[in-house]
Amino acid sequence: MIGKISSGILVVLFSVCLLALVSNVRTAHAQTPRMFATPNPYTMKLASSPAPPYPRYNFSIMVENLPKLNVVACFLRWNTTAVNITAYYPGTLKQLGFNLWLYGYWEPANGIMDDLTAAYVNGYVDIVDPVEVFKIEVECRALTPRAGIVVDISNQIAFDYDANELLSGDCPYDHTLYVKLSSAVGGAQIPVDKLGLLAPGIGIATTVLTAAATTSVYVKRKRK
Q1: Which residues pair with 61 in a beta bridge?
Q2: Which of 74, 146, 211, 220 lies in the 20 to 30 Å Cα band around 154?
Q3: Beta strands, E only, 39-91
Q4: Which residue range forms the structural domain that includes residue 119?
């Protein structure tokens, strides 16, 4: 009996320790400084292959868990045969006092945008929950392969108010686009009137039965 109780206590203790470990891992991940694209992935379904004027949509570049954030920037790369970046806009971070600049180059023909920057002049903001830094407008020029087309955040940069580096290097959370042909066939959906569809059949059946009954009555009377 004592052995069974001891085993039960050990199982409970092991479960509690495991839950605590998982909770700590999740907390650590949740507090990791991060830049990421959303939505990711994004799927656009078209009735036919893209043609001018090409369809467009927006995705956002977000950040989270950046204490005393003063400057944040990113570099973008993309495949110009499939997509093009046609515009960029400040995200909701602007409402917290940040201004937007393009310090580097924007070469749509070569798929390059360098040093798109948001900075808080003479101040900072503690970022915990995800905040939109930039909104990017994308033009879809071709159907994508099965693996999709990546708008690569090739470099991420962030510094706090004391010039400590918060983010650097290639961002692992890029934006992936899928452009596919829709499987839907054109046309309007019309409600089915089941009684209306059956009416002709009902009419024919009624006629046949009536004729049969009449013939039967006639034959019986003739025999008499």
Answers
A1: 37, 134
A2: 146
A3: 42-46, 56-64, 66-77, 83-90
A4: 31-181
- DSSP 3-state of 204: helix
Domain membership flag for residue 9: no
Q: Is residue 149 part of a domain?
A: yes
What total number of domains does the chain contain? 1
Q: How far apart are CA 94 and CA 28, in angstroms?
A: 28
The pLDDT tens digits for 21-69 are 434 434 444 699 999 999 999 999 999 999 999 999 999 999 999 999 9
Q: Tokens 């970022």 identify what position?
A: 127
Instruction: Please state the pTM of the whole predicted model.
Output: 0.70
What is the rounded distance in angstroms from the CA atom of residue 134 to the CA atom of residue 126? 18
Tokens for 85?
């970046």
Q: What SS3 class is residue 170?
A: coil
Tokens 């003479």 found at? 122
CATH of the domain at 110: 2.60.40.680
